[in-house]
Each structure stands twice: as C-alpha cells, then as structure tokens.
Amino acid sequence: MSHVFLSYVREDAGDVDRLRAELVSRGIRVWVDREQIMPGERWKTAIRQAIEDGAYFIACFSAAYANRGRTYMNEEVLTAIEQLRLRPVQRSWFIPVLFSDVSVPELSIGPSETLRDLQQVRLYDDWNRGIATLVEAIESRIPTTAAIVPGTPLVDKFVAMIDVVGYSSLVANQAEKLAEVLTAFAKTARQAAQIFRVDTVLTLSDTVLIVAETVPAGVHCTLDIMRRFAALAGQRSGFSMAVRAGASIGGVIHEENVVVGGAVVQAARIASNARPQQLLVTERVALQLLEESLMVHPLGLVTVRGFGEPVTLFDVKVSS
Fold first, then answer.
1. Can you give the C-alpha Rg of the chain in angstroms?
2. What's the pTM?
3. Low-confidence winner among 177-186, 208-217, 284-293 (lowest mean pLDDT)
4. What mean pLDDT do residues 255-263 have?
5. Residues 69, 273: Cα–Cα separation, whole Å
6. What is the percentage of the chain residues whose pLDDT exceeds 90?
7. 44-56 pLDDT, tens per residue?
8. CA 68 to chain centre
9. Distance of alpha carbon 176 from alpha carbon 167, whole angstroms
10. pLDDT the model gives residue 146
C-alpha cells in the first residue's frame, strides 16, 4: 500500500503529529522521516525514495518555515517538484498545506505555473474542514488500511491517547533531552503494556496509543505510563515536560500494528482538552470504573472539537 509523504520544518512537529494522527486514524499510511529512517541508513537516499514512491506529497508551510534561513525541507520540495513534472498534469500529487497564513513559495512547476497555482489546504482557517477535504482527496486514490480486509467489522475497544504537552516548543528548545526522554518513554510504555496485558501500545514520537479489551486494564495501564513518564522527565535537571491523556470506547479495526476507527480520533481530541498529568475519559469509560481503586470525578459537559455536541467527561486519578 502506498503512502503520503509529509514534508515540514522541525518547529512544526506538533502540528505535523496532529495532522499525522488525523490521517492514520482514517487508515492512511503516512511517511515521516523521524519514524521511518532506520539508524545507519543513508537518510537523503531514504527521503528521495520515499518521495518518489509516495501516492501524495504534502508540504506543510507555516510562519516557522517562512522564518527559516535554511532548511532541508526546501530540498524535499524541489525533489517533489521534479517528480510532479513527470506526472500527468490532470492528476493531483503535490498538496500544499498551510499551518498559518503565509504565502506558498513561488517556485516554478512548469511553463507559466508555480506552486501557488496548486490548490492549497488552509488548516489554520478551519482545521476540521481542511482535514475532511484532504482525506477525501487522498482516499480517492489510496486504499486505506481499513480496506485491507473487505468487510472487516468494527470491534468495541478501550482506546487511550497520551501526548506530550507543548511538544513543538520542546523540539525547538530542548531537542536533545527530549529525544532521550521519548526513547525511554517508548520503552517504559511497552513494559507497562506487558504488566497490564493490554492488546497494543503504539508509540509515535510524542504520542502513545493504548488499545485494551477491558476498561480497567486500559485505564490502569494509561495511568501507569503517565506516572513512569513523570518520573523519567523529573530525572533530567533543567528539563520540564508533562503528558496528558484522553480515553474513549468505540468501534475500531485493530490488525497487528494498525488501529483505525472513530475511538482513536475521539481519544486524541479528548486528550487535547486535558491539563498536564490529567486523564480525561468519557462517561462510558467512567461507568466501568466504579469498582476500581480509582478517583473518578465528573467534570460535567465539555465542548470537545470534533464532537457534535458537548460531552460529559470525567477526571480519573489513582486513589491516594
């Protein structure tokens, strides 16, 4: 199955991870350099090959890009333009995505045409509408992972998403320490998965996705990973970092290391409403924690992006 290549500057890592999560949750395979390039691999060759093999090339433009004096993203864009010129003009392939209100570079893509002549997706203007437009274009040409096995049923699972608060700022200011902590973070997350026997724990740079058959196991695993992360971050002097999490129950397609479904998107969006070191869950999750040694505090109706109406959320903590 082909992939979508994401080109970006490091300062936009937070927005890129958010975009990637939106695409992956819909079964679209995404190629991001920091995840796909293996140690010792010739990274320039790997990037060029991934661009050439991609079903789409998405260039993420922003104020951070515009303010950069030099960036390897420019090389990626030029390589993509080379490929664009070799492809049929009636078929879209290069998609400019805007994280902020900036101008796309006026680079030539053919006779009397520049990148500015390509239809743009303005995520800064309306994120949800932009994502819907982008997904519709991509799905018209790429079979999603949900279509690998036709007729695969959705199965109700507990899904939690843990993410790092202020990730893009940390990338820009404390990249070395951040990389150390995230490497250890991924290892401890896998250890917690074994202890609590959850189905899957997937780590994607600053994000951990947890899938479990039972709510108690999933919640305890999520809280344990958050506790472990706090301990790891606290061991680095002069380094401040925290995580937050959201959890839901819903239908997903779960095959090997692929998890697709609305519950994934819901968990990510609930997490974005959480404070540092806070786990927020839906009412359906909370109702299955009544007999657990946990503190479950109702927060009432909360407006969550992507939900049609306010959602009743609960704050979950380990009992002291």
1. 20
2. 0.58
3. 177-186
4. 69
5. 35
6. 37
7. 988 998 898 888 9
8. 24
9. 13
10. 44
CB 84 within 8 A of CB 76: no
Residue with tokens 């958010």: 18
pLDDT level of residue 2 (50, 70, 90 thresholds): low
Between CA 259 and CA 114 the distance in angstroms is 38
Q: Which residues of 185-219 are buried (b: 16+ CB within 10 A; e: fewer)?
A: bbebbeebbeebebbbbbbbbbbbbbbbeebbbbb
**Alpha-carbon span 62 to 10, nearest angstrom:** 11
Nearest to 129 by CA among 314, 306, 311: 306
Q: Which domains does the chain have, with CATH numbers?
A: 4-145 (3.40.50.10140), 155-318 (3.30.70.1230)
